[in-house]
Amino acid sequence: MTTRTKTTMTTSSTTTTSTTTTTTTTTIPNTDCLRGFSSVIQLDVFNLTSSQPYTYYSYTYLAGIDQTSATLIIALRNVPQWWYLDDVSVVQSTNNGRGVELLSDGGFESGSLAPSWKTCTDGSDDFVGFIERENPRTGKCSFYDFATRHFDYISQTFETVPRELYNISMWLSASRSGDGISAAIFVGN
Ligand SMILES: [Ca+2]
Fold first, then answer.
1. Where is this region: Disordered (predicted)?
2. How far is the CA of 183 from the centre of ligand 1 (A)?
3. What is the pTM of this model?
């Protein structure tokens, strides 16, 4: 089960508004980057036509009856230029362990994707994103992805307690306007 929550936030330096619906779509791309999981749930997919400052996206995820791990997968494509991703978080929202951050280096401040994050791309002709100091939301670093023809994927696996609820959140910024700016959020297990 998945639900989406709307959060609208404003800070002094950056205007942030998340999109929201309560619909869970099931059109999951047929890609090698999503194979290897017994199931993949799509939490969100959205397209932009203009650049946006860092915007907060949050979701609720319910672990399955026997599920002890899950993988958050963020798919990004941006025809004119690039995405920035920062402050990715997964926290258990109920019972013991509530509020404890389950991702490692969700702010990319280590300066290295490995060992916490994995990347994958649909196109061998695209380079996969990397950590950059150009436009962090917090700290000094963010994930920077330039995928003009195919989706790139960044993922991290976290432990789950069966039947527990998790809050998944992240901040995304798109650098320029265009008609090919897309992102999708998945959880695989
Ligand atoms: Ca950061």
1. 1-25
2. 19
3. 0.85
